Amino acid sequence: MASYRGHLMLAAPLGAAYGALALTRPDADWGTVILAASLTSVGGLMPDLDSDSGVPVRELFGMLAALTAVFLFQPLRETGYTIEQTLGMLIVAYFVVRYGVSRVFNYLTVHRGMFHSVPAMIISGMLIYLTYPSTDYHLKLYFAGGMMLGFLSHLVLDEIYAIDFNGLRIKTNQFAGTALKFTSPSWMATLVTYFILFGLGYLMFNDVPEWAQSTTNWLAMLRR
Ligand SMILES: [Zn+2]
Questions:
Q1: 125-149 pLDDT, tens per residue?
Q2: Ligand 1: distance of its center to the CA of 107 in Å?
């Protein structure tokens, strides 16, 4: 298993490269570059949210809590809450994620279980897509892509480190398998993961009228 620092050393340069892609657009915005680079770097650390102890996981939940607060600001303001009410709710949201969600997570997940999997990677991207406060779906897909790229870099690195020099797999837990997996030995964890995946997939499908339209057209063409 690669360390926190090891993951960051791969995800940060990847993030810089991914963020730089945004510069190729005619209406390039440095804010987009920084945000995409950061999301990719954070994505490279996300899978280890399932580890039960240590400073890195506490730091990760702190980061996740801050991100949640940032992402909630605009939607709450648009709903018509005053600035004081919004800030009050953001502070509560921060603590709920930082201490509440982290507790639940600790209880529910197994290190290197379904949280280290390909469907979890797709879920991370979908969550960014669905929560990013913008109507520009290209931009949302771009940020979601950054998150998934970082997440993927983590899985690949873990996968490489899971094999020792003799080519034997190191077993850390009965539910821990390879990092780049689609299912885990725990059918419950697998089922819940796919349930979330398809649920978010449905929401996303409804959110992108163009995709829905082209898929409908495509299906209509097949039927002919
Ligand atoms: Zn990991």
A1: 999 998 888 888 889 999 999 999 9
A2: 17
Report CA(203)–ligand 1 centroid distance (Å): 28
Q: 83-95 and 55-78 are packed helices; what angle lies between their axes, rounded to 10 degrees?
A: 150
- State the total domains in the chain: 1
Give residue 59's pLDDT.
Answer: 83
pLDDT of residue 173: 45
Would you say residue 104 lies in a domain? no
Does the residue 147 lie in any domain?
yes
Contact in structure between 153 and 42 (CB atoms under 8 Å): no
Q: Is the pTM of this model over 0.70?
A: yes
User: How remote is the CA of residue 199 from the centroid of ligand 1, in Å?
Assistant: 25
Across the range 186-200, mean pLDDT stands at: 90
**Ligand 1 centroid – CA 81 distance (Å):** 39
Determine the structural domain holding residue 195 and report its residue range: 4-51+111-223
How many angstroms is it from 26 CA to the middle of ligand 1?
37
- Assess if residue 80 is contained within a domain: no
Rounded average pLDDT over 108-117: 80
User: Could you tell me which residues come within 8 angstroms of residue 69 by beta carbon, excluding any fewer than 6 positions away?
Assistant: 90, 91, 93, 94
Does residue 203 belong to any structural domain of this protein? yes
Q: What residues are paired with 169 via a beta bridge? A: 163
Residue 174 pLDDT: 44
